[in-house]
Amino acid sequence: MELMINGRKTALDDAAVAPEMPLLWVLRDVLNMTGTKYGCGVAACGACTVHVDGQAVRTCVTPVSSVAGKAIRTIEGLGSPEAPHALQQAWVEHNVPQCGYCQSGMLMAASALLQKNANPSDADIDAAITNLCRCGTYPRVRVAIRSAAEAMRGGKKA
Predict the structure, then answer these.
(1) Structural domains counted in the chain
(2) Phi and psi (nearest 5°) for 125?
(3) Closest CA relative to residue 10, chosen from 108, 76, 82
């Protein structure tokens, strides 16, 4: 099987990866891409969120066979230390993370939102960001998303 992850073709050994294996375990255990986190295993918390063809998808319940031939973007492909995504900049500026465990999934969900809606309201953010954060940083998440959205529209820096 071949996957397209962060713009790169990645071949998987069919003997090592069963078609029903969750994408999360392929990313973490097979490909050693540990930015995507395991949280609940039932698609409730969102720690494992990545993009599949631009849509936010929870990888803990997504069979790897269902994403073959689709564009997968993980947190490792969102930005880089040299060129962080506007959301990553806003996350730092607004001190969003506390423990940080849920943040990669939260950032990926926020990125998918901003791809569809360049100027989300609080209601839009609340509807799209259903990820769970045990630290309760939701007010800062909203502020950071609005700040990044403004930066991405050409306003002030996030």
Answers:
(1) 2
(2) -65, -45
(3) 76
